[in-house]
User: Fold this.
Amino acid sequence: MTTVKDRVTLETAPSAIDTVGDAWVVQNPRFGAEGTHYHTYGLLTPYFKGLTEGRLIGTACVNAACPISQGTGELWLPPRADCPDCHQPMAWREVGDARGYIYSYTQVVRGGTGLEIECPYYQIDVKIEGVGTILKSYLLDRTPIKIGDRVRAKFRTGADATHTCLDLCWELGD
Ligand SMILES: [Zn+2]
Assistant:
């Protein structure tokens, strides 16, 4: 079986993970001898954990008093810890069907310093049924594409996981 790792080369080493409470603290050695970049995912940790388990999860406002969602908000991806409209904590929900279509795209032929994905590749914006936001990610396929093409989520899981947003990518297909 072809894995994500077989289909794209990332110019990054998997980040080590520390935990403080429920939050991941990521240690990314991206600066080589100059040092390691430490940052926490804080309240968004469940999203990044989910990617490493092959699960796509977002957040939705469930506050009945929210002026916009009235407690029945659509999913946000990437997630937000708190609703931007009522500022209350949002609830975690799994995306039932991690498929969608290409809403827009850019072909990246030559990346700038620090780009971690092997070029050329497509940076895509994905529209997913039931998700209110458009998610930016990248496509594994390198053949010509067009707006509206169907895509499905793929994940870097287990030992292949980078513990970053790069653990989510997409491939053409229904
Ligand atoms: Zn709200």
User: Anything to note?
Assistant: The chain has two helices and ten strands.
